[in-house]
Specification:
This protein has twelve helices and eleven strands. Helix 2 packs parallel to helix 10, helix 3 packs parallel to helix 4 and helix 7 packs parallel to helix 8. The protein has a six-stranded mixed β-sheet, with helices on both faces.
Length: 325
């Protein structure tokens, strides 16, 4: 081989190495700090503000954004508050009213919806034709995957496999995932469908007669501030424990709940943001990764149910492999 050929070969190897180095650098730079993050609150106070404050703290600590996080309230929001270009910006809509507003009048940037239920997100996305582009209109649900909820019931009440579900006619599409999860866990689901408030208590009594526990769903037609006291009292009197989907339910009289706090949802958002590519190409809608378990000890004693402590139950649920729904 001639000296000239050897020289060409060495040059080619060096050039290849340089190209590989550059391609690696470009790959690393695909995830960059966002220019701006806008948070649109459905209203001030309570869980919405808690989420915004926690996320702002997490992003500030991590240096995720180039500029400050900007927070708006839906009541005072105007379209001119947002830039007209989508480059490297992200809007986080907090709560169902903010999500609905952003679905009706899409901003130029990607929208990540939080503190919304899976059911409400899917309905709004379909209604305003946003479901065709989940990478620019996505969500982190506040409700838990079915398998996680059913695992809590099974862990707290081993051997008591009949779970009652109250369902409104508008929430029937929840049943497919619920039935799949219950089959995987060898649990029996009993369902009573309620068409209006006059049917609620009769349906509840029938359900409680054939169920070992009652699982509340994020179905606002049934589980609202008007109906919750009656549901809790009726189930308690019949000694059928109710499993809720928030800490407030446990405080009100549910036996237990698995839920994600606004701070835990904020942590998940903070984990996602640094890995977003240019133009904030969002991951698909997803369930919460971080969660807690609450137990009402007074209710467990009154119903003579021995329940493990919250830390043990949380650890057991985290160790359970969940099916993606």
């Amino acid at each position: 081989m001639s000296w000239h050929s050897v020289s060409q070969r060495r040059y080619a190897v060096k050039l290849l190495g340089l190209l590989l180095s550059l391609s690696g650098l470009l790959y690393v730079q695909t995830a960059v700090a966002l220019d701006n993050i806008y948070i649109l609150l459905s209203e001030e106070g309570s869980a919405y503000t808690e989420f915004a404050v926690q996320l702002n703290n997490l992003l500030t600590q991590a240096g995720t954004t180039k500029n400050a996080v900007k927070v708006f309230n839906l009541a005072n929001y105007k379209s001119e508050d947002l830039p007209r270009t989508a480059n490297n910006h992200l809007l986080i809509a907090v709560g169902t009213p903010a999500m609905t507003a952003m679905a009706q009048k899409p901003p130029a940037m990607a929208v990540l919806n939080v503190l919304v239920s899976r059911d409400s997100f899917q309905k709004i996305a379909r209604q305003y034709n946003r479901h065709q582009d989940p990478h620019h209109f996505s969500a982190i649900y506040f409700d838990q995957p079915w398998q996680r909820q059913l695992n809590l019931v099974r862990t707290v009440l081993p051997g008591r496999n009949r779970i009652g579900i109250l369902l409104s006619k508008d929430a029937s599409d929840m049943m497919a995932g619920l039935q799949t999860a219950s089959k995987d866990l060898d649990l029996q689901i009993n369902v009573e469908t309620v068409n209006d408030d006059s049917e609620l208590l009769p349906a509840l009594r029938r359900l409680l007669n054939n169920s070992d526990s009652l699982l509340a769903l994020p179905d606002a037609s049934i589980y609202n501030r008007n109906n919750i006291p009656s549901i809790l009292l009726t189930s308690y009197r019949q000694k059928v424990p109710l499993f809720g989907f928030s800490a407030a339910y446990v405080k009100a009289g549910a036996l237990a709940a698995v839920f994600s706090s606004p701070a835990q949802i904020a942590q998940q958002v903070a984990d996602i943001i640094p890995n977003l590519p240019n133009h904030a190409y969002l991951p698909s809608p997803q369930y919460p990764r971080h969660f807690s378990v609450n137990i009402n000890s007074q209710v467990s004693r009154s119903l003579s149910i021995d329940v493990e402590d919250e830390a043990t139950l949380t650890r057991k649920l985290r160790s359970t492999l969940e099916r993606v729904q």
